[in-house]
Amino acid sequence: xxVSGACHCGKIxxxxxxxxxKVFACHCTDCQTFAGGPFRVMxxxxxxxxxxxxxxxxxxxxxxxxGNPRIQGFCGTCGSSLYACxxxxxxINIRAACLxxxxxxxxxxxxxxxxxxSWLDKMNESDWxxxxxxxxxxxxx
Length: 141
Ligand SMILES: [Zn+2]
Ligand SMILES: [Zn+2]
Description:
Layout (H helix, E strand, L loop, with lengths): L1 E5 L6 E14 L2 H7 L4 E14 L3 E6 L6 E6 L6 E5 L5 E5 L13 E3 L16 E2 L7 E2 L3
Parallel strand pairs: 2-8
Antiparallel strand pairs: 1-2, 2-3, 3-7, 4-5, 5-6, 6-7, 9-10
The protein binds zinc ion (2 copies).
The site of one zinc ion (ZN) has 5 residues, from α1.
């Protein structure tokens, strides 16, 4: 499946061919910090099927939880998190939220559940609004 996407400001575009069936949610503390939320959803592509237009900023960090050094790619202007990969760039984890139609990527595997906050299980017990504060309540199914 071919996908495309961009960072929030549009300076960096991504084109990739995804590996079928590889949709994960990662709840590790690194992903939480990058996302500013409880988890990130990622899809996978081989390095040879991954193309970036524009200059992504990168930094390498040895993950606290997996112990592996990882390249973290993001936009240096708007800060959008775009991808992570091994140092050889053989397998790319693309942040699903920066892709078009990102809501269609439904993770079947949730990793690092041990650092996931317990309130995530109770999200449907909270009040859900269709838009921002003051907007209509909605039912979540
Ligand atoms: Zn940007
Ligand atoms: Zn993670």
